[in-house]
Amino acid sequence: MKSSDNHTTAQIKKDFTIAIIGSRGYPIVYSGYETFVKEVSERLVQQNIGVRVYCQKHLFSETPKNVNGVDLIYVPTVQIKSLNQLVHSFFSMLHACFSKADVILVVNAANGPFGLISLLAQKKTLINVDGLEWLRPKWKGLGQVYFKFAAKLATLFYNTIITDAEAMRQVYLNTFNTDSTVIAYGANIRYAKNPELISQFGLQPNEYYLIVGRLIPDNNSDILLEGYLKANSNKKLVIVGDVPYQDTYAQRMKAHASDQVLFLGYVTDSEVLAELYHQSYAYLHGHEYGGTNPTMLKAMAYGTAILALDTVFNREMLENGEFGWFFQKTPDSVALYLQQAENNPQSVETLKAKARNGITQKYNWDEVTKAYVTVFKALIRNGKSHT
Known about the structure:
Blueprint: E1 3-4, H1 6-10, E2 17-21, H2 32-46, E3 50-56, E4 66-67, E5 70-75, H3 84-97, E6 103-107, H4 115-120, E7 124-128, H5 142-157, E8 160-163, H6 166-176, E9 181-182, E10 208-212, H7 221-231, E11 236-240, H8 248-254, E12 261-265, H9 270-279, E13 282-285, H10 294-301, E14 306-309, H11 312-317, E15 325-327, H12 331-343, H13 345-355, H14 365-382
């Protein structure tokens, strides 16, 4: 990571400048949003495109103005879980609309209402709406109403809507009568390097199943856990992820911790996480409401056998079973497929052998960036780029 002074990058005239709003910032990686911002921003910089990323100030102990050629703007926000991202995006949008940015890229449909600010300021905008937040169990009542309302406003206020899967494009067509440009997330293909890294957890290669994700109802980790327990497997279950707050759902799951069920919490070392994927017998994916899911993309890119919840989004990613097996949303179905996997080790090895083939051109970060550049140029030229 290189920190540099603003004057260094300002000497070279950029083709145009993009402002990015809605993530926690750069170069930190907390979730799929930050991974997306990091991968795309660094590639845009290499193409002589100016990039300004709005960062949540309280997350950074140091505040350099530029890192790796990416300009950073630190905006404070409130320390309230349900409001901090929205407040941050609101003030970031105000700042961006009075800046010299040519295009504003926003992530997260929750930021839909703030498109009115850019519309009034006559700024060119696009928004990556991500998943179906209004259907997620963690949001109830007013939360669900807000997210669906915000998604609707996004279709009205932003020049271009980006969805990350064809199935998500159909959702926006059917729900809001709005077409979108489909650009998936990407992944970097990687091979095993340090198998010994998993020994710190008392693990052996191929002797455990892996779950990666926040411990929230949306990801159905409880169903995966219950299915694993029903399967009476001799292999361990390793769960990577947590929630950064006290939560009864997460606590209920953690009550099952044992020598066989390991809760590792957040694994921030990318090398360790990669080896956990590489060395697992299979990765279990219960995510239900997203489009292109970054954790499953990693599993594919790292050559992992995948057992996934049967959803239209997961079927699109795994090409209807070419790169993984599908279970239903019941513990019994999960248990059945775990038993099937253990009774057919050669089939599991076949899934591993071809998993990386699923990282096709559309999931390549270079191609993802190229697609965004095409949208940016269309917006600058025409002001609208729905396809």
